[in-house]
Please model this.
Amino acid sequence: MKPIRRRTLADHARGFLRDWSLPRQLRGESPYSDAAKSTGSAKLRPRLEEADKVGTNICPYCAVGCAQLMYAKDGTLIHVEGDPRSPINQGTLCPKGAATFGWLTSELRMSKVLYRAPHADRWEEKPLDWAMDRIAHLAKRTRDETFVHKLPDGTVVNHTLGMASLGGATLDNEENYLIKKLFSGGLGMVWIENQARV
Amino acid sequence: MPQWDLANADCILVMGSNMAENHPIAFRFALQAKQKGATLIHADPRFTRTSALADIHAPIRAGTDIAFLGGIIRHILENDLWFKDYALNYTNLATIIEDAFEDPSQNDGKFSGWDEAKKSYSYESWQYKGEFVPSSLAEHFVNTTESFSDQTKRLQQGPTPKDETLQHPNCVYQILKRHFAPYTPEMVERVTGCPKETFVKVADALARASGREKTGTICYAVGWTHHSTGVQMIRAAAIIQLLLGNVGRPGGGILALRGHSSIQGSTDIPTLYNLLPGYLPQPHGLKPHHSLQDYIDHETTPTGWWHNFPKYIVSLLRAWYGEAGMKENGWGFEWLPKIMGDHSQNPMTLAIEDGLIKGLFLLGQNPAVGGSNAALVQKALGKLDWMVVTDFTETETASFWYKGKPVQAGELAPKDIKTEVFLLPTSLAGEKAGTFTNTHRLIQWHDKVVDGPGDGRSDLWFVYHLGRRLKELYRSSADPRDLPIRYLTWDYPVEGEREEPDAEAVLREINGYTWPDRQQIADFKDLKDDGTTACGCWIYTGVFPKNDHNQARSRKPDGPDGPGTHLGWGFAWPSNRRTLVNRASADPAGKPWSERKKLAWWDAEKGEWDGYDQVDFSTEKAPDYTPDWSKEPAGMDALSGTDPFIMISDGRGALFVPSGLKDGPLPTHYEPVESPVRNPLYGQQHNPTAKIWDRPDNPVHVPEDPRYPHVLTTYRLTEHHSGGTPTRSVASTAELQPEGFSEIAPELAKELGIENLDWVVLSTPRGEVETRALVTERLQPFRIDGRLVHQIGMPWHFGWNGYATGDIANVLTAIVGDPNTGMHENKALTCNLRKGRLDRPQNGG
Model:
């Protein structure tokens, strides 16, 4: 094992003289480029040098619509920052937007489906496919039990009042579109709402 | 208006919003305007960072905004400060209203047409004299004694009745003057508590930023919408802006500061009960919507842009039901479910509690925290047979069955709760591709950069694969009621091992294409009502104009030399227009009002409109065009070259709204449903049409109830987001605001012996919460009719899950709402306050 040698006063002095910018500036080197270099600065690397992927994102919190840049390495998110090109945020983010990386990487995120059986006192983990099949079965059962084709006066209504959906203001337009299309146009649900009202 | 356009304003009024703290990035543009000399005003019950950065802070009692804004309208009219060339030409100021119209000042607070038995208005007496004007909202149909088409077709027979001299006693100008006459500076002070000198300073500052050379903006947020008079607060702002000539012009307008990343998108492509995509009305079981023809007959307006309505509904039906839709079956119109009444979130809570609703999907919403009367919400969830929650972490709603209030209080145990609960992990933006629509209608694409964790999937994946399974389950059904799900088009390509649906394929359908050869359509003018086009949301046409061109992906901002409309950045619906009604940025002759406020203009040589923005008008309609009434013109042909409001039947800015509002054609001050004082302006105490579900599990108390003497307002914090899940579960934001609290004025704290950081209990007839006291001068009491009225503020983000916790403020609020939107009244109610803690097991009780 290599013995540890503490830096002596002479080492510090040599280091200082080597990195001292003033003599180089007096020799005519620019204080903004060559004369600004030091042993420390030579070791600096770009913060995102190792990113192998960058994408544009839109801040997932409020409706101002700040643009973000997202960097990943080997399929793992490594950094999120404001997109300087955006005419809305010009690279800035607020405390929530700046927490986007923390949101995506939060230790409280789930990665498994949790299921609570009727009257049970605990969650259990379930396979995603099982849950999707069960949900489809329940949705069909409730729809079939509650569907109204016609009112007593003969008016065709083709609806069910027995199922509801809540949410959408945090989702993509494409997601809202499929929710409305399936739940309203396909299943006949009328209780479809989100955080907005008009 | 685009948020960046705020920087062009000469005066900005922020009201019903704490913009500096809740929309800080947009607030930068307000500060840029201030640096250039604009006056920045904040009218708000609390003194916040927005107030601190404003030139004027006008303190007002929560829920009295219409009294304040009505005072400004009166000030503008009485002192003749309105922009005459604009308001006379572009609004319905000169239009004459029916003789039978009566104002609340004549009627003890109600308009004419009130039906006491039905607790609602009929709209006949609010109409233009001799004409019937359909609503310009999503529901154009107005219930009248005469048939809809007979009534409204008079709009095609000649110009609306006007008196350009403004002398007719029932012209809108005279009605406005009479309606707002009682809103004097003295009355403003008496109702709102704002000193009249401060009020007059605000009114004058706004009026100064008006005319050819100047414009002003009004910014609002949920501080306006969360009231039983929320829509009329925004209407009052619209009246001010129309009188001052501030609509459709650079630095002018009303900016709604909305709160979720795609809350605008989820309104345009609505996961809402009463709308179909593009603001088409959902068919109604109690309206004449029996067939497609009935529906079109009763929802198509004879004049204005909405005359194109049939093209949009037929193209939507084609997109949804594909080749199963034929002319003979109304393109499948009958398969659309019909609504029966109000199916919004407030009555939804009660329908769950009452056992009507058996299954619930919760797709990124947390009603156990965000819903009004939150303890009732938590109790009601136990009545469901099943509930599916898709979220990134366990929400309060998902955990109601073992952590909810009834369980914590020992009233119920998990074994008593039958609900079958699924909690599915989701992917977040960055882990899925798609578009958000921001608060100024800007559609922006976001990329997928990484995968979601484990079984985390997008909601697009969830809905697509649920739909695929359901279609399979119904595949062999012969029952006619199963035709809609069987015929629903659902052929989206999937990608990768996870079989993620292609979001661009969905966006292409939203944009619209020709049928059956699927060529993208670039402009909604090309949509047809004959089944040859399919379009999921007509106002989004142009976002994907060619098969390989996704305009929402475009990232080309303007450079420093302008023009600053940034037409190459994303896509703003409709047709990439950044400022709506921008024809009004030019004078009636088509010339910009001034060089300084130039946006759109008529190019006489080319014979078309030009501008820095896409022009929101018929491109080739000359300013001197007048309809040829002998031909009974329809649609846009019935609007003249000086009618800029093309979505409204007469093309004029609606100072007075004849149809579409359930609580009156003009804003009127009513007290919040729960108020500590009597309405000083009228005998009518609160909005007579307010939605109040007063029942034993949602009790509401009468005004001046001595048990609940203080005003309570709920609000948000910079570091937290809505129901709190996306910030209370994140370390950095939770550390910045780690627990719940309420803000109390020093005078009230002293009176009740409360020190800063003491535990206090807040109570209303719905429930009680305990929280820490933050004693601060940011809240000030008001002297109303000689009485001292205190206000208490409480952030509503907190709940029991995540790193940052606190009692749920919405346990205090009531299921009470605005008559037009059903939006809850959570910004102004009343409560009691005491020092101490609740009797809970964890408190040693």
Notes: The CA atoms of residues 66 and 147 of chain A lie 43 Å apart. The helical segments of chain A are 9-19, 21-26, 39-43, 100-104, 128-146, 173-186. Chain A is about 30% helix and 25% strand.
